[in-house]
Amino acid sequence: MKSMLPPVRKDRIITQLPGCFSPDAALHTKDGFHWQVKAACQGQKKGAVGFNVAKVIVVGDVAVGKTCLISRFCKDSFDKNYKATIGVDFEMERFEVLGVPFSLQLWDTAGQERFKCIASTYYRGAQAIILVFDLSSVGSLDNARQWLEDAMKENDPSSVLLFLVGTKKDLSSTEHLANMEQEAIRLSEEIRAEYWAVSAKSGEGIRDLFFRVASLTFEANVLAELEKSGCRRVGDIIRLTENSKEEEKTTKRKANCC
Ligand code: GDP
Ligand code: MG
């Protein structure tokens, strides 16, 4: 049956793996999609590319800019007047990655973060977590660790991609930004997150960030599906971990020998 959905917007089509923000704090720094993902998408291998929605949760202190981050990307708008988020569950953003339809479900909190009582259904089953902090507030970076801890109570660490995103870049002086980035990159390394600095006001970095989130979650989903369907051996991992160099070598070895 033909899909009833309108075609994906031309500016949501991803044909190449977008680059990271900083190679010092990236989930991986390879310059293309995993070869097995490319092969699966080319052949539209049955089952492997069928898992096409990823839940992405956005967490962080109140007023760090979570809602503005999502609005800038999904609606290309910025509202400088603060309005607490009420009653919003998620925005669905459609992409096409390597010719395959793929959607991100971007979950924004409905203001519960004020009371630190976010329901477990909000956190549960996330494929990616965007930990947001305000680049002009050291406290909000310190609290990112606590947000992560809460979110991970409901998720499996081996299957979640983490992004640590500093917002309001437009407000920071170069010197202040450099200090904050040093701290943020240190935390990213510790929690194995990919670091980004963006501004919802100017739009800087927003599209690149979400394209990267979409691409890496898509890649992880397809690899997981291939693994489940037995097309892929366990251990051929794409996530960058402490042993990333080793993994890259392993992946290359496998690419050469298969
Ligand atoms: P949330 O509580 O984390 O969802 O925060 P909001 O997205 O509602 O933003 C809180 C406040 O920060 C609002 O007044 C926004 O206008 C402001 N804000 C958000 N992002 C930016 C940004 O990139 N630059 C500047 N200058 N202000 C921002
Ligand atoms: Mg909000």
From TrEMBL:
Any GO molecular function: GTP binding
Keywords: GTP-binding, Nucleotide-binding
SUPFAM superfamilies: P-loop containing nucleoside triphosphate hydrolases
InterPro entries in the cross-refs: P-loop_NTPase, Rab, Small_GTP-bd, Small_GTPase
Domain of life of the source: Eukaryota
Signal peptide span: none
Coiled coil: none
Keyword field contains Nucleus: no
Protein name: Ras-related protein Rab-34-like
Taxonomic lineage: Eukaryota, Metazoa, Chordata, Craniata, Vertebrata
